[in-house]
């Protein structure tokens, strides 16, 4: 059993004292995790809404242009009504009647791929956050008023060992990493999208994104060193 920080409260002896000490410790730790999960869930919800707005606008880049399709249909109908037309014009109409199969540009595939992968990761982080909150809530149920302090402490020890065996803390710590990766992919998609629209705006946003990612990387790596 790892050492615990001494908490204020009534000094109880025996199993009752151990039970009181453990429940206070667990409540403090679980509340910290719960607060983190609540913050992550709010951010994941807002971020997913922003991502959805972009994805709805950019998925059309993967589809044929409606105007081009309309022109081809008009050319087909027009050519069927003409009998004597110049040979050059006939060749143009024939090319319109036999269009090349549509293939989206590589930038459209990259943009939509990044946006949708980012959206999936954001939703996955939200789902894992909900599951983690259920785990934590279930973990605290060891302190039953119908059981003796000794039985409660033994049940808590079993759950504590299972908590460590299943690496629940590491799993919870991975949820922010999913959101961070989702944000990075979204920003890369934004940069690629802007480069297809305007070079000046894209240059400014690219510089800001690089600085932002550099600062985030520094804040992530420096505490580990």
UniProtKB/TrEMBL annotation:
Listed name of the protein: DUF6535 domain-containing protein
Domain DUF6535: 15-196
InterPro entries in the record: DUF6535
Regions crossing the membrane: 39-59, 110-132, 166-194, 200-222
Domain of life: Eukaryota
Species whose genome carries this gene: Phlebiopsis gigantea (strain 11061_1 CR5-6)
Keyword Transmembrane helix: yes
Alphabetized UniProt keyword annotations: Membrane, Transmembrane, Transmembrane helix
